[in-house]
Amino acid sequence: MLKFVKAGRGAIKPAHLEAHEGWPRDLAQGDYLVEAWQCNLANGTFLLGPRTLALLGARQNPCGIIDLLRVHDGDDRSIILNILEQATGTPSSFCFSTRVRSRFGQASPLCCVGNSTLAGEVGDGMLEGIFAFPDTGNC
């Protein structure tokens, strides 16, 4: 279990380099498979790694927010959407931990750590970070 967030929870903080670097460091010290991701806020598309795409059941890369949310339970969807929405409003560091369900109903843990960098113009900027898949089955 990661010490900064429990499954079904999330956290968002003002852009803070120490917090953002600390969360991935915690993942690196455990047995996690890690893939980078990014979202271009100008067009709202997410570019994901192949393992993340497969876990989410997404059919194309880049993909949209619906592809990210559809395999999460309802409560987790609102947590994730709220965190991502806040991160697009102000430069932030964020994380969440959840379980995604395959089309066969099997649950798999998924952790996300990211940050947002925003440009001067509304809708410009990036969300980027990592998705982590624990080898131990706990996130």
Kindly describe this structure.
This protein is an alpha+beta fold. It has four helices and six strands. The chain has one domain: Beta-Lactamase (2-Layer Sandwich), CATH 3.30.450.20. The chain has a six-stranded antiparallel β-sheet with strand order 1-4-5-6-2-3, with helices on both faces. It is globular and about 45 Å long. The termini are close together. The mean pLDDT is 81.
Q: Kindly provide the radius of gyration, computed on alpha-carbon positions and rounded to a whole number of angstroms.
A: 14 Å
* CATH fold type: Beta-Lactamase
- The helix count comes to 4
| Annotated CATH architecture | 2-Layer Sandwich
Q: Give the strand line-up of the largest sheet.
A: 1-4-5-6-2-3
Supply the CATH superfamily name: PAS domain
Summarize the structure.
The chain has 139 residues and is an alpha+beta fold. The protein has helices at 17-29, 50-56, 65-69, 74-89; strands at 9-14, 32-40, 45-47, 92-101, 107-118, 125-134.
Defining traits:
single chain, about 30% helix, 6 strands, about 140 residues, 4 helices, six-stranded antiparallel sheet, alpha+beta, Beta-Lactamase
Topology of this protein?
Layout: E1 9-14, H1 17-29, E2 32-40, E3 45-47, H2 50-56, H3 65-69, H4 74-89, E4 92-101, E5 107-118, E6 125-134
Antiparallel strand pairs: 1-4, 2-3, 2-6, 4-5, 5-6
